[in-house]
Amino acid sequence: MKKIRYLLLFVLIVTFFSISIILKNMEDSTILSNANTLSNKKIGWGIKRNNNHEQPDLGSENIKILTENHGIAIGNSESKKIYLTFDEGYEAGYTPEILKVLKQNRVKAAFFITAHFVNTEPDLVKEMIDEGHIVGNHTINHKSMPDLNSEQIKSEVMRFASNNL
Ligand SMILES: [Zn+2]
User: Fold this and answer.
1) How far is the CA of 1 from the centre of ligand 1 (A)?
2) Does the global pTM surpass 0.90?
3) Which domains does the chain possess?
4) Could you give the CA distance from residue 97 to residue 43 in angstroms, rounded to a whole number?
5) Which pLDDT score is estimated for 125?
């Protein structure tokens, strides 16, 4: 129980700092409010897994971008904590089992949902909330953001807030 509380506390702290970083960046620059001035070069995002119990490799270009933008993608290697996040854009029907296992083990996670998921699986979204998981916005249509203009990006993100799915 104590470990779960630490995990939940840490997720909340990471969320708080992530929001703080976003807000700080918004204060520091108006560039972030206009996607047309940002690079739309596509960069693969992923991790290079290993079998030696070390943290995965994020790739040098991703590390550079994260560092420049004060982003956080990986925790302290000395700490024995993991953070579970689930992309509901490609959930492939595993979510009910994932929720069951998390509940059995009293573990909280973060689920990032799309409009399609909320419209087709409202009971699972309710279960996530009722079980105390974090439910985050993963855009309306799970599109590739570099392909969109500012208005389209705003629509993809903000229509969740307006409840206009
Ligand atoms: Zn995704």
Assistant:
1) 30
2) no
3) 1-38+84-165 (3.20.20.370), 41-80 (no CATH)
4) 32
5) 97
